[in-house]
Structure formats: C-alpha cells, structure tokens
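Provenance

Sequences were taken from public entries as deposited. Structures were produced by running a predictor on each sequence independently, with no templates supplied. The record for D-sedoheptulose 7-phosphate isomerase from Acidiphilium rubrum is shown for reference.
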Amino acid sequence: MGAGLRNNSKEAERIVSSLQRAASLKLALAEDPMPIIAVVEACDTAIRAGNKLLFCGNGGSASDSQHLATELLIRLRGSVVRNSWPALSLTLDASALTAAGNDFGFDEVFARPLSGLGRAGDVLFGITTSGRSPSVVRALQVGREMGITTVGLLGGDGGAARALCDYALLVPDFETMRIQECHIALGHIILELLEDRLIGADR
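Predicted structure for D-sedoheptulose 7-phosphate isomerase:
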C-alpha cells in the first residue's frame, strides 16, 4: 500500500477538523451582527457623501485589500447592474510602496500615500491577522488624525490596531489561515449589504 493511501485517513480527519474550525469561527462572528452593520452604515454614509473606501494590509491581507477594493470599484455580484463606487487599495502601487519603504521606512508604506490620497470622511480598512502589523497600525493612526473613519479586520486580541479603530471586527483565533478566511467572508458580507443599499441610491 502506498504512503498516500496509508495517510489518507489522517488527512481526511485533518480536512474535517479544519473545515469545522473555519465554520465555528464564522458562526462565532454571527452571534452579534451589529458591529458588522455599523461598518456597513459607515461605508454607506461615506460613499453617499462623495467619499471613498481605502484598504491596506500585508501579504495575504494585501491580496484581500485588492480583492475587496476591486469588488466595490467594479462589481461584486454578476447578476447585479450598478454604478462603480470609489475604492482604493493602498497595496497596489509598487513604485509608491518601494519609495515609501526606502525613504521613510516600511512602517510608512501605507501611511505616506494615505496622507496624500485620503481625506476626512473616507473609510480606511486596516487588515491584519495579528493586529500588530506596524505598517497597518501606522496607517490607522494617520487615518484617525486626518478624520478618516477607521475599520479593523483583526484577529487574536486585536493588538495595537484595535485601539485605533472606530470599528473593530475581531476574529477570535490566533491562526493566520483561519483568520484570513473569516476576513474575506466579513468583507464579502459588508460589500453585499453595502451594494444592496447603494443600488437604491443610484436609482
């Protein structure tokens, strides 16, 4: 019997365990939907006032930032016809990121462009699974100083980012993979509800 077949039962158990853990974390977030609704309200208010949503994060959270910004700017659901709404991922511009990192230090790679692109009334999503990413923490700090509404998609105990967020959505776990799975689910839920609200405004 090959090694793959011998390990099959253990791998199956691991798959079931991982999926159960992912589901249990999402259900934990469902226990109190009001913080999520509060974020939707803040985003709705910002866009109706002519402001925008901004996103930042590192690594996998950088991908989530681009993913969510794109779905607002272009489209979330293929069956929905609606306008494009203003959203920007601060992770996209390699020239700006590397210049900020080289000239000001990596902690400033999001804060520096935010200081030029953001304005009071915008909403900034800082995505960090630990709540301790210095570049995201610094962006949230600068955002607050500018009068930007700050939202954290966080994990664990929320780290230093938690105190800098007007709205903190905290995944109660310390495993990066599981937190990231919840972050993108939260992002999709927020954008789905926001899309439903703004379609009415477009009409």
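The longest strand covers residues 149-155.
The chain has two domains: 1-31, 32-202.
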